[in-house]
Amino acid sequence: MLRAILVDDEKHALNLLSKVISERNDMQVVGAYSEISQLLSSVTELKPDVIFLDIEMPEMNGLQLGEQLRRLGLEFEIVFVTAYRQYALDAFDVEAIDYLLKPINPEMLQRTIERIEKRRAASVKTVVEAPPAVSIHCFGGFSIQKPDHAEPIRFPTAKAEELFAYLLMNRNSNISKWTLCDSLWPEQAGSKNSENNLHTTVYRMKKVLRDNGIEVKLYSQRGVYRMECDIHCDYISFAENLEELVKASDGQLELLLEKTQLYKGVLFSGMDYHWCEAERERMSRYYSVLAKKLAAYYIQNGQHIRAIDILLSLLSHEPYDSEAYEKLLRTFIEVNDKASFMTHYEKMERVFLEELGIEPSHGLKALYQSVK
Description:
alpha/beta, Rossmann fold, Arc Repressor Mutant, subunit A, Serine Threonine Protein Phosphatase 5, Tetratricopeptide repeat, five-stranded parallel β-sheet, three-stranded mixed β-sheet
């Protein structure tokens, strides 16, 4: 059960918050204070798991108090309680796990408690997982990296590297030798040469993997190949549970952040792999959807600067995404950054006209004129 301390200079608000929390069976209110001095004299002894701090207090606002409490060196989470969204970004600067808007919504409180429990569960792990011995990077290029090597692993031929990439993308699937031949040597489709090339390339690929201690399972039987891979790979991690994440109605902030940070550019960028075009487009499309969903979450919670960072990153990968541009421009208006609005609008207008032959939407044009 979580031990909670409540702090609010308004007795009515303090009682209301205490009532909402006391109705739960997973939390216990061990202290409720309207005077900061009483809180500071008791907090060490009470050993709270979480402190709910009102931000708007006359003696010392909650953000300042949060910083002072952090200096005590105790292990607890801070949740800010406020009637104003504009404090949201500042709340995270004090390492708060969340903030709640008054009046407290039980559903939002549930979300906060789940975050606290998740962080507590992670902090009590006694076994620290060792970093992966090898990592595979597929976004923004293609490389296999060992932690004790400055340079990525080199394959003896481009085809040996391409074969590994193909099997990785089609991991855990049975692939006939003729499918592999047609995909990697389309100009030799159906010929005996392509089958010989495949046998030689498989040998070279396996030798590189074996010499570098890359543990993948490669099976071949009766002209069918199958690869299973447990190595850390950005593409594999990104591709997991994408549809469920897109459909999810709640924030899923941590998972959205994890996914968008994995994406460093087009799948197998710079590689002339015609067989992965559909998957390239699919990964790009999912990244765009997730990044915009994350930006919308930040905007909804008053964290406009973080939303701007996400949208700028998205546009660096997808420079023709008109929806992302519109979200970015409207966010600049929200934070009253007219200079950035003008700069990015004119950049968008120039790119769209020169590259696509289209103009910005009527709504954005009207917004541009009003700002100008």
